[in-house]
Amino acid sequence: MNSLPTFNPPRWACNSHCHVVGPRARYRVDENHPAIPPDSPAEALFALQKQLGFDRVVIVQSLAHGLDHSAAADAIAAYGSMARGIALLSSQANANEIADRSIEGFVGMRAHVPKMIPNAVGPERLAELGSLCADAGWHIELHLHGPELAEMLPVMARLPCNVVIDHMAYPNPLMHDDLFHAFDLANVFCKISCIERVCETDLTIGTAHAKNLIARAAEKIIWGNDWPHINVTQVDDVALVNILATIPSAARELILVDTPDRLYFHGKTK
């Protein structure tokens, strides 16, 4: 991928979901994890950000590094005030652990619901984490699949913090009705990321889902490219960015600038 997008993101545009992994010579990686990409270091991410035209970035802690946040924290420090992080918390997480991550530039935590993922959370644990995050001014990024939403919706409605649903809750290939029900909750947002995972060979399918969500509530949507695209074989970041040109300009400003600013940067870089 050497070309430049035909779409030019607006000033302060944020890539709200990506990861860094390695390099292994410096940062320990859990090689037993079933979905570990090759080294995808901060320098490569920064070069991609420049190529795609994004000023700001949110780095989500990778399961490849587990609870060792060194790679992500160093990347945030190197990128400066235009970067924020989403952490993974231990099963015994407390306010002190969150405070330590906050100093490093993390502003939220990712909660994994699928039971095959280490430290997966159920409804009771999600409620506990919501209280911890609210006290710290954090939000929760909820990684789950559409059928898992129904069990979580009553808890999400009671959480005292914001919730961001990752990756459109993985439509495969249809959007799950409970995602639209979640949008009725004032504290729920959604990432239109992983468009390519809906159908790698036809991005229009995932794009249609994203546009349905935008039509429902553009002010609740953010965008990320999910680099380095773990377990995806055919992906073109330029093509993913160019899809944004097909979204109405007012919605683009909300999705790329205003809502990420609210969730991650709290107006500190605009």
SSE order and pairing:
Layout: E1 14-18, H1 42-52, E2 56-60, H2 70-79, E3 83-87, H3 95-103, E4 106-112, H4 123-136, E5 139-143, H5 149-158, E6 163-165, H6 177-182, E7 188-191, H7 195-198, H8 203-217, E8 221-222, H9 237-243, H10 249-265
Explain the overall architecture:
It is a single chain. By secondary structure, this protein is of the alpha/beta class. The chain has one domain: Metal-dependent hydrolases (TIM Barrel). About 40% of the residues lie in helices and about 15% in strands. The chain is built from ten helices and eight strands. The protein has an eight-stranded parallel β-sheet, with helices on both faces. β2, α2 and β3 form a beta-alpha-beta unit. α3 crosses α4 and α4 packs parallel to α5. The longest helix has 17 residues. It is globular, with a radius of gyration of 17 Å. The mean pLDDT is about 95.
